[in-house]
Every structure is written in C-alpha cells, then in structure tokens.
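pasting for the record
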Amino acid sequence: MDEPFQVDRREWRKYLFYIDVVVWAVFAAATAYVIGNVYLAGFELGTARPDNDGNWWRVMTGFAFMMGALSWVFFRFWKNGFLALKRPF
C-alpha cells in the first residue's frame, strides 16, 4: 500500500505564504474595484438617475470578495497568534 502524499512543514509554510500573497492581491483588487464602483454609483445617484442600480450590485460583489479575503487574513492572524502563544518561551 502506498503512503499518502506528505508535505513537510517548511514546504507547507511556503505554500501558505504564496496563498497569503494571492489573498492580499485579491483584497487590494477588490478594494480598488469597490472604490471605483462606489464613485460611479454616487455619481449616478447625484445626477438624478437612481433607476440604474447596476453599480450598487457591483459594489456588493466587490465587498463579497473583500470579506472573503479578510476572513482568510483574520483566520491566519488568530491561528498564528495562538500558535505563537502556545509555544513555550
């Protein structure tokens, strides 16, 4: 019987670092996307064209990506903080 695929701790940390970099890039892109769509939605609202609410839906999709990225960041932050406190000095 073959052994399951094993990844050593150093290699796993390297993969998690790359995932973290990608998540931060997604967060930055989603933030820029939200800022642009909030501006456009406010501009449409200010020019008395409130019937076009497409930009508000785009704002919500940007917020969804931001919340997904932030939830990963906070999970990693608290998990690593717990692991650091668990390690004896």
